[in-house]
Amino acid sequence: MFNRLKKDKSNHKGITRRSFFQKIWVWLGVVAGLEFTGLLIAFMFSGSKRSSRKDMSQVKIIGRLEDISPNTVYPYRSGQIYLVRMKDGGFLALSLKCTHLGCSIQWNEDEDKFICPCHSSEFDRKGDVLSPPAPHALDIFAVIIEEGVVKVDLGKKTKRKKFKQTDLIYG
Hints:
Layout: H1 2-5, H2 17-45, E1 59-64, E2 72-76, E3 81-85, E4 91-95, E5 106-108, E6 113-115, E7 122-123, E8 129-131, E9 140-146, E10 149-158
Antiparallel strand pairs: 1-10, 2-3, 3-4, 4-9, 5-6, 6-7, 7-8, 9-10
């Protein structure tokens, strides 16, 4: 009776468990290889020619020109900038990051200067260094004034040694 339940393995046709798993592993290897190849190609061509059209996702609207008073400093934390409007009406978008180690600077209105809480670097309203260890002036972003609206291009940061009058944008 026991012999009747025993199957004859020599006549067994079809797929065995071992060959099934071998095929699964081969197909998984093929899929992984294709994914790796796709990622490699995407990486190699990610820096290729960019569209000549300006990427508007980096341009942030700050406000209307008439709503921003002269001689004010406006923090725009979500954009990582301070928008400074000088007495003469010129605009400057300063980076929040200290040029020493990248800590977030803070505007002190009473002392009319930016102070880095990490190592006490100080910057004037134009972003120039008043007190080291910061090695150079705060970086600036491009300010755009269109149809009475003040915008800042957060994708266009400029490093600088010190303030120049040409850094200011007038509306």
